[in-house]
Amino acid sequence: MGKGIKFLLGNERREIEGIDPTMTVLNYLRLAERRCGTKEGCAEGDCGACTVVLGELDGGKVSYRAVNSCIQFMPTLDGKQLLTVEDLQAPDGTLHPVQQAMVDNHGSQCGFCTPGFVMALFALFHDGSAIDRQRIDDALAGNLCRCTGYGPIIAAAKQMRGKDARDRFSANSAATAAKLGELQQKDTVEIAGEDGRRCFTPRSADALAALLLEHPGATLLAGGTDIGLWVTKLHRRLDPVIYLGEVEELQQLSIGESAIEIGAGVTYARLLPVLAKEYPDFGELLRRLGSGQIRAAGTMGGNVANGSPIGDSPPALIALGARLVLRRDGGRRDIALEDFFIEYGKQDRRPAEFVEKILLPRRDKNRLFHCYKISKRFDQDITASLGAFNLKLEKGRVANIRICFGGMAATPKRARHCEAALNGKPWNRETIAAGQAALRQDYTPISDMRASRTYRSMVAENLLLKFFHETSEPAAATRVVGTDAKAAHG
Ligand SMILES: Cc1cc2nc3c(=O)[nH]c(=O)nc-3n(C[C@H](O)[C@H](O)[C@H](O)COP(=O)(O)OP(=O)(O)OC[C@H]3O[C@@H](n4cnc5c(N)ncnc54)[C@H](O)[C@@H]3O)c2cc1C
Ligand code: FES
Ligand code: FES
Fold first, then answer.
1. What is the pLDDT of residues 312-334, one digit of tens each?
2. Looking at the CA of 107, which ligand is closest?
3. What is the mean pLDDT of the chain?
4. How far is CA 18 from CA 22, 72, 185, 341, 353, in A?
5. Residue partners of 189: CB distance under 8 A and separation at least 6
6. Distance 444 CA to ligand 1 centre (A)
7. What is the DSSP string of 111-160?
């Protein structure tokens, strides 16, 4: 077993053996490295002030992604390059094109948010895809600014549009890749703090399974976008932690004939283009899940495993008939995802078991799948209610429908009464009215800070009606943004 983590801070190699395994990257930067350019705002992944960029080996090249350093733990840096705002300016004082664009467009006033914006823009600069307005909005949705307003910052992003994305970092890419290659470790890595708390980073599913048998109570850390907050907000002292980010099998994403197999450790950022192609509404849902920084780290495996009643992916996955593969030691079981959620805070996960993958059925051309996230803000907001509908029509009648809601019960839950009221019936307003009445039997939602129970009930009924309008001929245009009614219909 290897001891300690190895990474690049900018271009300098760091090797650390003893460190608190849940120390955040932000605290390390500010307290140990005295790199205070990276700021702390919320310490919960919401404001983007702490944004840093991680460089990783990707097919012999280096790819970059922006993450929230306030909720990333130190063990996740192993084998990577960590870039902060201090790395951007060239040694001769020349500003990076992203910094220059911010200056040219007056993109900063008090400056507290600025390092985070600059790093999010740096990741966009290196993204390789065309920088259109939606890409800019998506890249900046995880960064808050209270003084400048977004106009000048968006103008700075537009200034980068069409520019050849070459800079010192792309010029040095081969050298950086070689340095990163030297840092890669083959065996499980252990890191421990002064108080003896440990984090293990296994490299294979077999090694993970063996570690879990030894430590069945360990906390499994994937993207850390939930777990990070257990430490920064709830001050939990986790021990031991097993980091899943280097378990090769969990990073697999494959498109088979009948199913898309999604390894539990695949990030939303990797998954989004694949799902957007298969199920446009699912892609749109993921585009609204958290922010670019959250999607660059967070995983669907974590979203499912945490069992939250307001997680965005479970209702859509359940409506589509997804299955879950769980592994313990050498044994596996494959269950319908809906059976995984037993009650609030209780999932069907046995000691020493982990989620290996999610099996999502391929698109059936005879079915219509739509889903709708209701939240107070478009971006970076937790769901109040989420409805997912998967319909098969035959000669104007409902041959089969699967409906699942989030935010309406203690777990993501199928609307069985509503489904029964719709199945076999003609797809018309009378049937929808019966379905709406049945929804009242399916759910007795609670009131909380996101929505009242009355609002939630009403919105569920209205989402069914909206789905009807979008799937009737001619389809009604009901979307303000995102997938338009026509695309959603086809
Ligand atoms: C600012 C912010 C915005 C957010 N916005 C949204 C949103 O819009 N919609 C939404 O649904 N969520 C949102 N979240 C919550 C979070 O991003 C998601 O739940 C995410 O999918 C969690 O995945 P993760 O990989 O980060 O999980 P982690 O935090 O690493 O883990 C979450 C839980 O899953 C367990 N776990 C992880 N992987 C496995 C595995 N393979 N086997 C068994 N257990 C496992 C962990 O032990 C832990 O209990 C947001 C979070 C933040 C901080
Ligand atoms: S400090 Fe606000 S996102 Fe990290
Ligand atoms: S410039 Fe002050 S918060 Fe953005």
1. 999 999 999 999 999 999 999 99
2. 3
3. 95
4. 12, 17, 17, 38, 28
5. 1, 2, 3, 4, 5, 75, 78, 200, 201
6. 26
7. -SSHHHHHHHHHHHHTS-S---HHHHHHHHTT---SSS-HHHHHHHHHHT
Give the chain's largest Cα–Cα span. 73
pLDDT at 487: 43
Task: Report the share of the chain in percent with pLDDT over 70.
Answer: 98
Q: Write down the residue that tokens 């993921």 correspond to.
A: 286
Say what the pTM is: 0.96
pLDDT digits (tens, 9 = 90+) for 55-83: 999 988 999 999 999 999 999 999 999 99
Cβ atoms within 10 Å, residue 411 = 21
Q: Report which of 212, 241, 207 is spatially closest to residue 224, judged by C-alpha positions.
A: 241
| Ligand 3, pocket-test mutation among 143, 146, 150, 154, most atoms within 8 A of CB | 146
Q: 482 pLDDT band (50/70/90 cuts)?
A: low
What does the alpha-carbon distance between residue 38 and residue 67 come to, in Å, rounded to a whole number? 12
Q: Is the CB of 41 under 6 A from ligand 2?
A: yes
**Rounded-to-integer distance, Cα 27 and Cα 143, Å:** 19
Atom of ligand 3 nearest to the CA of 110: 2
**Is pLDDT larger for residue 60 or for residue 298?**
298
215 DSSP assignment: -
Sign of CA dihedral 35, 39, 44, 46: negative
Residue ranges in 248-374 assigned as alpha helix (H): 268-278, 280-287, 292-297, 300-305, 313-319, 337-340
Q: Ligand 2 pocket, 46 CB below 6 A?
A: yes
Instruction: Supply the DSSP string of 150-205, one letter for each residue.
Output: HHHHHHHHHHTTTS----HHHHTHHHHHHHHHHH---S-EEEE-TT--EEEE-SSH
| Collapsed DSSP state (helix, strand, coil) of residue 310 | coil
